[in-house]
Amino acid sequence: MSLGPGQTSRAWMYDDLLPGPTLRGRTGDGVRMTLVNGLQEETVVHWHGVDAPEHADGHPRLAVGPGGTLAYDFTLENRAGTYWYHPHPHERTAIQTYRGMAGFFLVDDADSDALDLPSGSREVPLVLQDKRLDGSGEIVYAPSGPDIMTGFLGDVPFVNGTPFPYLPVDRTLYRFRLLNGSNARIFDLALTTGLSFVLIGNDGGFLERPETLQSILLGPGERVDVLVDFTGAPAGDTVVLQSRAFSLAGPPSSQGVAMDLMRFVISSAPAAPRALPEALPALPASPPTEGVPQQTFSFSSFMGRHRINGNSFEMDRVDARIPLGEPQVWRFLNSSPVPHPVHLHSAHFRVRSRNGGRGRLYPWEGGLKDTVLLMPFESVEVVVHFVRHRGLYLMHCHNLEHEDDGMMLNFEVT
Ligand code: C2O
Ligand code: CU
Ligand code: CU
User: Fold this and answer.
1) How far apart are CA 332 and CA 201, in angstroms?
2) Could you identify the atom of ligand 1 that is nearest to the CA of residue 86?
3) N or C: lower Cβ tally within 10 Å for the chain?
4) CB within 8 Å of 292: residues ≥ 6 apart
């Protein structure tokens, strides 16, 4: 991979691209793809946020060894949204993702067509990551004990595989599909020069209504779909996408340091202004929650071991069961001083409440989510409703060092 003028680094990539090729489909499309494993170790691809049937979900038990192939064949059932894909092999998800294996999976449908949002060069997927480089400019992945406690954090921001890049933009409306694809870093996103984000979607597609925001806190695995209006920006100006500093109790680390992620350079050419959407497509109906069964999952990080309900992941042990079609309330408790972005396969959920810590929900946590950030000592209640596929699926922390350390479990939709 190229790291900019005269600098290259070894990387592990999908189709020799970093990030991997952006896949784009429509709800109802058939998806047929073959993974050919050119690595010297096993791998498997998981479609994060895409509600795939069990055999196509990329569970680590389906990983193939060097030279092996795996055929995927399923129907795209999700509504329009910003999904993504990355490796999911047993205890090797962190290193493979960090070395470059991740890409977008964008889905469109009649609702997204009707919104007539900025498209072409004005619709830009941006995967936000952080990496460490050694003296010769190679990306390095060598987590120490303390790194496994906090997750592996880098000091160089990468956007779409490029360190601190820039994008020339016209003075009009843009659509950015932002993915936090880092192993462990949380970004508190903001724009300089007083520009704001108009939030229109998140993990599971469009929100109920657009919301103008000055900042968005995005944990690993989470996505937001935002509009940014450069119409009033002075020609030649540079707008920086930043991660603002935030403070975190717990073990010392660079989590929360301020970082400049990328720059938008405003063109001098005139461009036609565009209106913001006034309304967004309706969300699917929410399931009734009165008196539904509850399950509690406690995420702990003690003596450097990351566990759920006291257990480490085991390939064949099933830790929770839920009948297909039955809504339940799942409570995630973070009993540790480190953040845990909790992710579920197979279905999106609705976030109902947060207690402890920040004690409230944020606009980007509305609608349908597949990953929710638990800061230290927070608990979150979500409403889950698995309606598509029976089978074995995963719940895990999307801090990839925590995940590989065993903060993951199998649940079965029965
Ligand atoms: Cu991106 Cu199992 O997840
Ligand atoms: Cu996933
Ligand atoms: Cu975690």
Assistant:
1) 23
2) 1
3) C
4) 326, 327, 328, 329, 383
Q: Tell the residue nearest (CA) to atom 1 of ligand 1.
A: 48
**343 close to ligand 1 (CB < 6 Angstrom):** yes
Percentage of the chain exceeding pLDDT 90? 94
223 Cβ closer than 6 Å to some ligand 1 atom: no
Distance 341 CA to ligand 3 centre (A): 6
Residue 285 identity: A
**Tokens at residue 57, please?**
């979900």
Atom of ligand 1 minimally distant from the CA of 58: 2
Distance CA 147, CA 304 (A): 10
Residue-level pLDDT at 1: 87
CA of 197 to the centre of ligand 1 (A): 26
Are the beta carbons of 47 and 85 closer than 8 angstroms?
yes
| Residue 83 CB contacts under 8 Å (≥ 6 apart), including other chains | 47, 48, 49, 50, 104, 105, 106, 107, 223
Contacts of 392 (CB under 8 A, 6+ apart): 54, 59, 318, 410, 411, 412
Q: Rounded to the nearest whole angstrom, what is the distance from the C-alpha of residue 153 to the centroid of ligand 3?
A: 13
User: Can you give the three-state secondary structure of 296-354, one letter per residue?
Assistant: EEEEEEECCEEEECCECCCCCCEEEEECCCCCEEEEEEECCCCCEEEEECCCCEEEEEE
Q: 232-286 pLDDT, tens per residue? A: 999 999 999 999 999 998 888 999 999 999 999 999 888 998 999 999 999 999 9
Ligand 1 contacts CB of residue 86 (under 6 A)? yes
Rounded Cα distance between 281 and 8, Å, is 43
pLDDT in tens, 95-119: 999 999 999 999 999 999 999 999 9
What's the token pair of residue 357?
């810590």
With a 6 Å cutoff on the Cβ, whether 48 touches ligand 1 is yes
Q: Residue 41 pLDDT more than 90?
A: yes
Q: pLDDT band at 180, cuts 50/70/90?
A: very high
How much is the pTM? 0.98
pLDDT of residue 112: 98
Q: How many CB atoms lie within 10 A of CB 18?
A: 22
Report the candidate in 368, 111, 96, 327 with the shortest Cα–Cα distance to residue 222. 368
Residue nearest to atom 3 of ligand 1 (CA): 48
pLDDT tens, position by position, 122-168: 999 999 999 999 988 899 999 999 999 999 999 999 999 999 999 99
